[in-house]
Design goal:
The protein is α/β, with parallel strands linked by helices and 236 residues long. The chain has six helices and twelve strands. The chain has a single domain, classed as BirA Bifunctional Protein, domain 2, CATH 3.30.930. It is globular. The two termini are 28 Å apart.
């Protein structure tokens, strides 16, 4: 069976709202095909990479009490805030963090959201291994962790939160590369009490080339989902 093609695009540094709007545009394009409005086309898969300026985003089932900073201080620190339609609770996006937004038609993969989430985790786990880090899952907690079974040492390095509409996904994952972790002090990240947040930089004790991490993520994404990338830039 031929591999599915995924259209890849690195959006660079982009504010949260236009990136969200772009995801919605691609998702709606696929939903038109599924509804029969666009019978001459097929659904297509996309993977977007982006770095957002500092922003807190709250999932649809999240709790605002997990935001520990008041609005006045947040604005003074130039941090944006959005309530989103993804799953999960509160998280932070910022510079030197890779945010990945897969817009996939899961009917061409597997109609199992749990498996899809585990696959996203596996993409990150394999990419981290390229840098000598052992990423793992924490039972009952979505995301990728370092030392999840060492009480008091559990450190979350990647957060996940998705939305799925008629088996078309949006939103995705955020991997801390050289991220300024002080921003996480203002929230109870993902609504999980008494656990730390970390980054590749913190774990290795040195900054890493974010472009190398992107390449590792693309490689592992192709491996886990058994897909091939084409560049959106080449198509334009």
């Amino acid at each position: 069976m031929p591999k599915q093609i995924v259209h890849f695009e690195d959006l660079g540094k982009l504010e949260y709202q236009p990136a969200w709007d772009y995801q919605e545009k691609l998702l709606q394009r696929n939903l038109k095909v599924k509804s029969g409005e666009d019978r001459d086309s097929e659904t297509e898969h996309y993977l977007l990479f982006v770095e957002h300026p500092p922003v807190y985003t709250l999932g649809k089932s999240g709790h605002i009490e997990n935001v520990l900073i008041n609005e006045e201080d947040r604005i003074a620190q130039n941090i944006q805030f959005f309530r989103t339609n993804r799953g999960g609770d509160i998280t932070f996006h910022g510079d030197e963090q890779i945010v990945g937004y897969p817009i996939l038609d899961l009917e061409k993969f597997t109609t199992d959201i749990g498996k899809y989430m585990r696959n996203l985790e596996e993409v990150i786990i394999l990419a981290l291994a390229e840098f000598g880090l052992k990423g793992e899952r924490s039972k009952g907690e979505t995301g990728v962790w370092i030392d999840p079974d060492l009480k008091g040492r559990e450190r979350k390095i990647a957060a996940l939160g998705v939305r799925c509409s008629r088996w078309v996904t949006m939103h995705g994952f955020a991997l801390n590369v050289n991220t300024d972790l002080k921003y996480f002090d203002n929230i109870i990240a993902c609504g999980i009490q008494n656990k730390q947040v970390t980054s590749i930089e913190k774990e290795l004790g040195k900054r890493v080339d974010i472009e190398e991490v992107k390449e590792a993520l693309k490689k592992s994404f192709e491996e886990v989902f058994q897909v091939s990338f084409v560049s959106r830039k080449d198509e334009k």
